[in-house]
Amino acid sequence: MEKLDSIDRQILRILENDAKAVAKSIADQLGMTKTPVYERIKRLETEGFIKNYKAVLDTTKIEPSITVFSFVSLDAQKGSLMDNFLENVALFNEVTECYVVGGEFDFLLKITVKNPDAYYEFAKTRIATLPNIGAVKSAFVLNEAKNSQHFPLL
Length: 154
Hints:
154 residues, alpha+beta, four-stranded antiparallel sheet, 19% strand, transcription, Dimeric_a/b-barrel
């Protein structure tokens, strides 16, 4: 895998801000021709620097929902038990992000549901019924001050 040079980083910045930007537009912004920019984008995709392209949805226009961050600790932190938890959580559509964390808890889940009652039902019937669950503590998002998937490219 090649190292990223400054042009690669500029291309990544542009695509991160506008995934629909075409090679011609990027080339114009960088003062280059379309072909080398297109080849760089293909290389960045092939080498896994670009995983995929996504649309950022305005969820407030789709339907009412709430975001909940749940901190989960397991009774035992054996590798197979942690893997089992991750496999189960991956099946839950309500879980939009899952992180293995250090400290007081083992996992941080970002959960999106319609309302607090829906979260209660989800926590009671899905999370709490998983094997090896020690504790679940939750924080409800009251206001989304910043939501950015941007990676700070230096």
